[in-house]
């Protein structure tokens, strides 16, 4: 696993696994974590449907306050849950091979969603894509590359235009970026710049339209951004503060206004010198630049959602002084990022967030009452701008 990675799949790294190697190396340090005191607004946890086995939710997509879809895995099977404005319920979803997991989902209407992930078969990890037609989820064939492929995120501009991103094994113990597109009928691999010999991966993607997309990830311990102009993918320069950095999620309110989140380190790359901090970057239509964001001593941001250019929410986790991972929520109100008070079960993480409006967001992840030593349970949190409801 790369140091200071962005988001990583639970099926690959194990439960509570979106820690990078860097995060593990610093567990012996003392941290001075300063977060806002509890205020009138808060992020209480919503109960996910009981599934009776280890479970995680990795991605969520909300069409409105009364329609959201969350995806992940339970045991070795895919897990899809649906929000109808009142309660969450499990939706039947198909599996392939063994250890099937869904990492991302994108819905453009109540009858059109795409979910992506991977499964294990015949010694190889292979891509997994599923579609929702308003009545049922079904597996859609998707191509693979190299000696193992996975899809980490998906974004749909319409029912006939989606982009999924991830990585594949080039048989050199190095992963390479993978991009696939959906035309409403089939998935196909789309060529993109090859970044060899260094390791690279995409962790997030967002499409404003069929001719405007951004994919984000990491390359040789640096942030990686590529853009789609309707014809080809190209690398867009993006800053990397410190010595190591990666981007895990991205969302755009327009083609000229995007936000990407992840983490970085000022460490030397050896032992306890690596202290991951939150990383936020913005796109103004011309260039990517770093935006200051609050960060406990050890913290990660995995997902971001923007209801408008002046309203964004980012989620992740941070480590307390006692080395317990807790959920982290940050908010953008048009001028600066600030930490939002958020309740957290013991050893908890938020991996994805979707905001239907500035007053309606759902965030998903996992938690463990045993500090990571036992099975995890899916975690869902909800924000309505004023109060929380179950």
Give the key terms:
four-stranded antiparallel β-sheet, single chain, about 55% strand, about 400 residues, 2 helices, Methylamine Dehydrogenase, Chain H, mainly beta, globular
Spatial strand order of the main sheet: 1-28-27-26
Strand content is: over 45%
Q: Can you give the mean pLDDT? A: 84
**What's the SSE pattern?**
HHEEEEEEEEEEEEEEEEEEEEEEEEEEEE
What name does CATH use for the topology?
Answer: Methylamine Dehydrogenase, Chain H
Task: Tell me the helix content.
Answer: under 10%
- Specify Rg, calculated over alpha carbons: 19 Å
Query: Rough shape?
Result: globular
Main beta sheet: 4 strands, antiparallel
Q: Which CATH top level class fits?
A: Mainly Beta
Number of strands: 28
User: Whole-Å distance between the termini?
Assistant: 37 Å
Which structural class should the secondary elements be placed in?
A: mainly beta
Which stretches are low in confidence, meaning pLDDT under 50 for 5 or more residues running?
A: 1-47
Number of domains: 1
Continuous helix count: 2
Summarize the helices and strands and which ones pair or pack.
Layout: H1 10-13, H2 21-25, E1 45-46, E2 55-64, E3 67-74, E4 77-83, E5 88-91, E6 98-109, E7 112-121, E8 124-132, E9 137-140, E10 149-158, E11 161-169, E12 175-182, E13 187-189, E14 200-209, E15 212-219, E16 222-228, E17 233-235, E18 244-254, E19 257-265, E20 277-283, E21 288-291, E22 299-308, E23 311-319, E24 325-332, E25 337-339, E26 348-357, E27 360-367, E28 377-383
Antiparallel strand pairs: 1-28, 2-3, 3-4, 4-5, 6-7, 7-8, 8-9, 10-11, 11-12, 12-13, 14-15, 15-16, 16-17, 18-19, 19-20, 20-21, 22-23, 23-24, 24-25, 26-27, 27-28
């Amino acid at each position: 696993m790369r140091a200071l990675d962005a988001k990583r799949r639970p099926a690959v790294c194990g439960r509570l696994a979106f820690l990078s190697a860097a995060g593990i190396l610093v567990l012996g340090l003392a941290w001075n974590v300063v977060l806002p005191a509890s205020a009138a607004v808060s992020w209480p946890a919503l109960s996910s449907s009981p599934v009776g086995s280890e479970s995680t939710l990795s991605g969520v997509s909300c069409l409105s306050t009364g329609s959201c879809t969350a995806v992940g895995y339970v045991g070795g099977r895919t897990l899809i849950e649906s929000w109808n404005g009142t309660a969450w319920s499990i939706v039947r979803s198909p599996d392939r091979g063994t250890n099937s997991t869904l990492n991302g989902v994108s819905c453009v209407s109540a009858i059109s969603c795409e979910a992506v992930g991977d499964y294990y078969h015949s010694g190889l990890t292979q891509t997994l894509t599923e579609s929702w037609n308003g009545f049922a989820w079904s597996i859609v064939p998707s191509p693979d590359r190299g000696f193992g492929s996975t899809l980490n995120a998906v974004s749909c501009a319409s029912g006939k235009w989606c982009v999924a991103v991830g990585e594949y094994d080039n048989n050199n113990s190095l992963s390479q970026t993978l991009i696939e597109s959906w035309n409403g009928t089939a998935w196909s691999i789309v060529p993109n710049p090859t970044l060899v010999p260094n390791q690279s991966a995409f962790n997030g993607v967002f499409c404003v339209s069929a001719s405007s997309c951004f994919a984000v990830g990491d390359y040789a311990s640096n942030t990686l951004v590529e853009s789609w102009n309707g014809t080809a993918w190209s690398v867009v320069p993006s800053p990397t503060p410190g010595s190591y950095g990666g981007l895990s999620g991205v969302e755009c309110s327009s083609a000229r206004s995007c936000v990407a989140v992840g983490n970085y380190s000022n460490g030397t790359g050896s032992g306890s010198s690596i202290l991951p901090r939150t990383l936020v970057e913005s796109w103004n239509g011309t260039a990517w630049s770093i935006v200051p964001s609050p960060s406990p001593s050890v913290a990660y941001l995995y997902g971001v959602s923007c209801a408008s250019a002046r309203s964004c929410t980012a989620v992740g986790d941070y480590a307390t002084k006692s080395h317990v991972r807790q959920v982290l929520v940050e908010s953008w109100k048009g001028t600066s990022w600030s930490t939002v008070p958020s309740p957290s079960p013991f050893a908890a993480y938020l991996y994805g967030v979707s905001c239907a409006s500035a007053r309606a967001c759902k965030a998903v992840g996992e938690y463990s009452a045993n500090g990571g030593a036992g099975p995890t349970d899916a975690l869902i949190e909800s924000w309505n701008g004023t109060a929380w409801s179950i």
